[in-house]
Amino acid sequence: MEAGTTPRSFSSFDGFRVLVSEHCRDFSCSTIYTQECQKMDINGSEEERKARSMTLYIPLGEGRSSFNLENAVCNHGFFMMAPNVWIPSTKTLQRPLRLADSSTSILTSISHPHNENSIHVHLHHTEYVSPKDQQVILDQVARMLRLSDRDERDVKHFHQLQPKAKNVCFGRIFRSPSIFEDMVKSILLCNCTWRRTLDMAQALCELQFELKGQKRGRITGDSTNRRKTKISVDEELEYYSLGNFPNSMELNVLDEETLRNHCNLGYRAKIIIELARSIQNGEVQLNKFEKPLSLDAKSMPKIYKMLNKKRGFGPFACANVLMCIGYYERIPIDTETFRHIKEIHGRNKVTDKEVKEIYNKYAPFQCMAYWLELCEYYQRKFGKLSELPRSKYHTITGSYKLCTSIPK
């Protein structure tokens, strides 16, 4: 494949045929994506070293008609929370993503050029990433953007129930690259202003950067053999200067007081530390939550009960996590939900039962229907969320009197 050539699209998201460069002829895994390397002289000039990069591709296949990167990202408060950076001018999502060792991160830019059938995943300051690392990176991108056969089926089903969603390419609610990040961010959304939620997420990413003792540099070789290698951060990129969102392994080494004081988390510090430790000691096995057999109506109540047993995971946080997993029947109900129902649906007295009655006609996608209404409301009030400057993110709320804000 020639440099700069976009690979052909495929008929489905899963089980892609592989197109590889000469550097990765042994590439083999259950879900295959295409990739292209730009390799330069390791002894080149400073400009050449900064220009080192690698681009991976995710063919959209049948999902091309229902996919829009801007709409798939800018529909949930998570896209405004660090370490995510949405760049309006280029319609690009930028953030660090983990490599296979779960310790090393690499700065990544995700874009969908006009009229192309593939998502471009650009890795900064590296001329080579191993096939194993490539797959891990692309799995994270696919999770954030909900690129799977199951997600595509859900989108099509919801569009049948709510044709308006099809007209605006809505149906992929943005989420994090890992369920752990989704869970922690769900806790950050509880019982505080939207501004504070944003600040806490940023503080956690800054803490992760400090914990790793990171220095700006280049990543080469296989991540599994370089657990002490520093994160790759592109100093030339306009917005980015934070670390990654901390994972359970990194938070497990902290004590509650350090986390609380450093990130101004308040009571949330204890919840987050306990969650991280329960994952590290094997008490909670997050991979079980997203197994294909778990994603059905019969299994979801069991997962809800498992989540609800954890400190800090009340009805709102549990419903939010379930939505991130891909279960849309439970709406994350909070004060913002009540405001929305009163203002948009004209109900004077709002109860959980009334909320369910309004959206039950969209079953099993009640949460998607609710989210579509919220996004429409915010865009009428503030303009396109994807075009807002980051300095305005903290203002995106239905009412400053509420403890909660943008769609959660």
Structure explained in plain terms:
Helix 6 packs antiparallel against helix 12, helix 9 crosses helix 10 (268-280) and helix 11 packs across helix 12 (315-325). The chain is an alpha+beta fold and 408 residues long. It is built from 15 helices and six strands. The termini are far apart. It has a six-stranded antiparallel beta sheet. Strand 3 and strand 4 (92-98) form a beta hairpin.
Describe the structure in brief.
By secondary structure, the protein is an alpha+beta fold. The protein has helices at about 45-50, 70-75, 130-145, 150-160, 165, 180-190, 195-210, 250, 255-265, 270-280, 300-310, 315-325, 335-345, 350-360, 365-380; strands spanning about 35-40, 55-60, 85, 90-100, 105-110, 120-125.
Core attributes:
six-stranded antiparallel beta sheet; alpha+beta; 408 residues; 6 strands; globular; 15 helices
Mean pLDDT: 81
Main sheet attributes: strand count, strand direction, barrel closure:
6 strands, antiparallel
SSE ordering? EHEHEEEEHHHHHHHHHHHHH
Query: Radius of gyration over alpha carbons?
Result: 21 Å
> What is the distance, rounded to the nearest whole angstrom, between the alpha carbons of the first and last residues?
42 Å
What's the number of helices? Answer: 15
- The percent range for strand residues is 5-15%
- In spatial order, strands of the major sheet run 1-2-6-5-4-3
What structural class do the secondary elements suggest?
alpha+beta
CA-based shape? globular
Helix content: 25-40%
Total number of beta strands: 6
> Which residues form runs of ≥5 with pLDDT under 50?
1-43, 215-240, 400-408
